[in-house]
Design a protein that fits this description.
Largest sheet: 9 strands, mixed
EC number: 1.13.11.27
Structural class: alpha+beta
Distance between the termini: 59 Å
Mean pLDDT: 91
Low-confidence stretches: none
Shape: globular
Oligomer: single chain
Radius of gyration: 21 Å
Domain VOC: 18-148, 174-328
Keywords: Dioxygenase, Iron, Metal-binding, Oxidoreductase, Repeat
Strand order of the largest sheet: 6-7-8-5-1-4-3-2-9
Number of helices: 9
Order of helices and strands: EHEEEHEHEEEEEHEEEHEHHHEEEH
Pfam families: Glyoxalase (PF00903)
Protein name: 4-hydroxyphenylpyruvate dioxygenase
């Protein structure tokens, strides 16, 4: 009698330790940089373009807390970036991870089945050396591995310092998670991708019983690095009476892609007050949400009247509670948006708020005629 087969061991996780930056491809990088500086109080810290020897595109690197956004636009109509913007509108091209060894992570990822997009290379200037490599992810999105332990410059070699300060910073802290929208029945494919390629694990999952309204539904699984520093929810549509926000996103974006970036703050009341003053459009749920919210979540430290005034949502799990709010889409197409989140012990994603939030999104869909 043969011995029973041992269960296959999960792959060793890649060495990625955190988000490094998120790069958007945009139609007008200068105007986009101005928007994120004035609306979200990002400092512009570095620039690359014709003045630095790059003739076909321009990039602005922006910083707020440990969050780094890169806004890149094409200078010629036939550039691949221009084609990306034509197809998707302004959207996320690269979700980059910081790692002590970009070449090693790239080699492991390709060996495990990832598609190479940029083989490892070293970029050097007077501030030191950065190692970069890239693999393909969902849709036209890529993952970039960045090793910058031996670099002291403002962003990457090839960028020159260009500090344009925002009016106020410090109320946004770090990237909490980055959410992908994929098509029908594609979620498990990308769950397996992060399991097999990255060695990540399934941290949370939600189905149509958790995420549904009278009209629409979706499913979501959250993949995470062992340390939980990197969390990557993946959404797909589920059957409903009408077209879900995931379907609307994929239709307008033209493929799977990044739906939203969640930004952690140490003080959400300060953060949302500041964003509102800057003119940022935020989702609103019905006033009736607050009539029974404390019965659901229990005691909280914050003033409920202030949360009600700012339309900040509250949820609790067995580890604590969280506070969250979502912006409306950041560009003309109803695609990418931001979430602002403050965690008071909770490691969840606001399951108790899903219905109210998605009804608010459905109201916007209805106004656009896409529900």
């Amino acid at each position: 009698m043969s011995a029973p087969k041992e269960a296959p061991q999960p792959p060793t996780p890649l060495a990625v330790v955190d988000f490094d930056h998120v790069e958007f491809y945009v139609g007008n990088a200068k105007q986009a940089a101005h928007f994120y500086r004035t609306a979200f109080d990002f400092d512009i810290v570095a620039y690359r373009g014709p003045e630095t020897g790059v003739r076909d595109c321009v990039s602005y690197a922006l910083q707020h807390g440990t969050i780094c956004l890169v806004l890149t636009g094409a200078l010629t109509a036939d550039h691949p970036i221009a084609e990306h913007v034509r197809r998707h509108g302004d959207g996320v091209h690269a979700v980059a991870f910081r790692t002590p060894d970009a070449a090693a992570d790239f080699a492991k990822a390709v060996e495990r089945g990832a598609s190479a997009r940029r083989t490892p290379e070293e970029l050097t200037d007077v501030h030191g050396t950065v190692q970069i490599a890239e693999i393909a992810a969902y849709g036209d999105t890529i993952h970039r591995f960045v090793s910058r332990e031996h670099y002291t410059g403002p962003f990457l070699p090839g960028f020159e310092p260009r500090l344009i300060k925002a009016n106020q910073t410090g109320f946004l802290h770090r990237i909490d998670h980055v959410v992908a929208n994929v098509g029908w029945n594609e979620m498990e494919t990308w769950v397996k991708f992060y399991e097999d390629i990255f060695g990540f694990f399934q941290f949370r999952h939600f189905d149509e019983k958790d995420i549904s309204t009278a009209y629409t539904a979706l499913r979501s699984k959250v993949m995470a690095s062992p340390s939980l520093a990197i969390k990557l929810p993946i959404n797909e549509p589920a059957e409903g009476k009408k077209r879900s926000q995931i379907e609307e996103y994929v239709d307008f974006y033209g493929s799977p892609g990044v739906q939203h970036i969640a930004i952690a703050t140490p003080d959400i009341i300060q953060a949302v007050s500041r964003l509102r003053a800057n003119g940022v459009e935020l989702q609103r749920v019905p006033e009736s949400y607050y009539d029974t919210v404390t019965e659901r979540v229990g005691a909280i430290e914050e003033d409920l009247a202030a949360l009600r005034d700012l339309n900040i949502l509250i949820d609790r799990d067995d580890q604590g509670y969280l506070l969250q709010i979502f912006t409306k889409p950041l560009q003309d197409r109803p695609t990418v948006f931001f979430e602002i989140i403050q965690r008071k012990g909770s490691e969840s994603f606001g399951k108790g708020n899903f219905k109210a939030l998605f009804e608010a999104i459905e109201s916007d869909q209805s106004a656009r005629g896409t529900l």
